[in-house]
Amino acid sequence: MVGHGDIRTGRHCVFVLHAHLVFVTKFRHPVFTGAHLERMEQIMRDVCADFECELAEFNGEANHVHLLVNFPPKVALSKLVNSLKGVSSRRLRAEFPELARHYYRANKLWSGSYFAGSVDGAPISVLRQYIEQQNRPG
Fold it and tell me: Is 77 exposed, middle or buried (0-12, 13-18, 19+ CB in 10 A)?
């Protein structure tokens, strides 16, 4: 179950809301290096902070990223996702011009779709372990 450290409070509520998000690159092209992923994590942490969310876990590979986000009930997950994808795409393109060759049609790095799963029941530690293991071969 969820630990007491995961419980957050707002003005009128007490909550524990986590979402597992997965974003894939356009056409699943292998785009990211370790440096790109490291910078992307910081960008996504900043976006989450702007939404009063916490990026609890982040991991990725050349063609996708996993995020575990703790968010307040007032946040519309679709708006958070649009901001995470839009801001990361713009900033990475500005900071890493070599990525331009991966921006196919309409300068989009990310696929238009994404995965969002509510995290309930499984201990957060189990999901963190799953996300951490995603970049390991085998």
Answer: middle
Of 55, 88, 47, the residue nearest 71 (C-alpha): 55
Bin 99: left if φ > 0, else alpha if -120 < ψ < 50, else beta: alpha
- Asked if 93 and 43 touch (Cβ cutoff 8 Å), the reply is no
3-state secondary structure 93-130: HHHCHHHHHHCECCCECEEEEEEEEECCCCCHHHHHHH
Second-level CATH architecture of 4-133: 2-Layer Sandwich (3.30)
Q: Per-residue confidence at 135, pLDDT binned at 50, 70, 90?
A: low
pLDDT surpassing 60 at residue 137: no
Provide the residue ranges of all domains of the chain, joining segments of one domain with +.
Answer: 4-133
Closest to 88 measured CA to CA, from 124, 119, 129, 50: 50
Q: Which residue has the higher pLDDT, 34 or 26?
A: 34
Q: Enter the pTM of the model.
A: 0.82
